[in-house]
Amino acid sequence: MIKLIATDMDGTWLTDEKTYDEELFLREFALMQEQGIKFVIASGNQYENIYSRFPKTAQQMYFIAENGALVAKGRQVLHVDSLSDENFQTILEIVQTYSDEKVTVSGLASAYVLEKDGQRYAEELKKYYQKLRIVEDFNHLDDQIFKVTLDVPEDRMPKLLSKLQRDYPQIGFVSGSSTSIDMSTKGMNKAVGLEYLSKKFHINSREMVAFGDSGNDVGMLKYVGRSFVTATALPVAKSAADQVIGSSNESAVQKEIWHLLN
C-alpha cells in the first residue's frame, strides 16, 4: 500500500520549460487526498521556489528542500539541518581553490551569489531561487547555510566530484545535475527528509514511492519501496532505481503516478 509519493523537480517533474501538466496534477492530487497519500516535493532547490510552483495545493503538500536540509508542510517549517561553521569554512576553502567556477550558497533566508559572477548569472538562477542576493563575498552571511553549489562544465563534473570526495571526506558531495556539484553536511540527502517524515507519521519506507534523475536523488531512490527515474537520468541514478520511465518532457512521472493511483 502506498502512503507517500515523493518526486524531484528539475529533469523529473518539470519539463525543460519548467512547466508541468497542472490539470492532470489537480486530478492526481485529489485522488491522493482521498487515498490518504502524502505528496512530497523533494528537491535540491530552494523551499520558496518549489513552494511557489503549486499555488492551489501547496498548503496541503510536503516539501523536502535543499537536498533534505529543510522539511516543511505548506508554510510550516518542520525541520532544519544547517551546515556547521567548521564545514562551511572548509567549503569556502574549496570554493577559493576553484575560484574560476561560479558558486551559489543556499541559506534559510536567501541564496547568495558573488558580484564577480555577474548579473546575467544571477538572473539565470532566478529560475531556481525565489530569494537571491548578490554579495561581495561569502564570509559574513547572517543566515543558516544548507549547501553550496559549484557550477562546472559537464565534461569535468564526474572527475572533479570524485576528486572532492577523496580530498574532503568530511564533506558531503553529490551531483546536483550534469553540470553542478552540491556540497553539504556529510550524509545529507533527500532520504534524510523522507526518514524524518517516516518517523513523524509512522510510514514505513516500503510504503513510499520516489521519482528522480540525478546524483542527489540516489539516497531517496534507494530508501523507498519503489523507485523510478526518467529516461534522461544520470547513470548513477538509473543504477539506483527499480525502473526507467519516459522523459519529463512527456510528463512521464505524472503519468506513472496516475497509473499507480488507479
From TrEMBL:
<protein>
    <submittedName>
        <fullName>Cof-like hydrolase</fullName>
    </submittedName>
</protein>
<dbReference type="InterPro" id="IPR000150">
    <property type="entry name" value="Cof"/>
</dbReference>
<dbReference type="InterPro" id="IPR023214">
    <property type="entry name" value="HAD_sf"/>
</dbReference>
<dbReference type="GO" id="GO:0016791">
    <property type="term" value="F:phosphatase activity"/>
</dbReference>
<dbReference type="GO" id="GO:0005829">
    <property type="term" value="C:cytosol"/>
</dbReference>
<dbReference type="InterPro" id="IPR036412">
    <property type="entry name" value="HAD-like_sf"/>
</dbReference>
<dbReference type="GO" id="GO:0000287">
    <property type="term" value="F:magnesium ion binding"/>
</dbReference>
<dbReference type="InterPro" id="IPR006379">
    <property type="entry name" value="HAD-SF_hydro_IIB"/>
</dbReference>
<dbReference type="Pfam" id="PF08282">
    <property type="entry name" value="Hydrolase_3"/>
</dbReference>
<keyword id="KW-0378">Hydrolase</keyword>
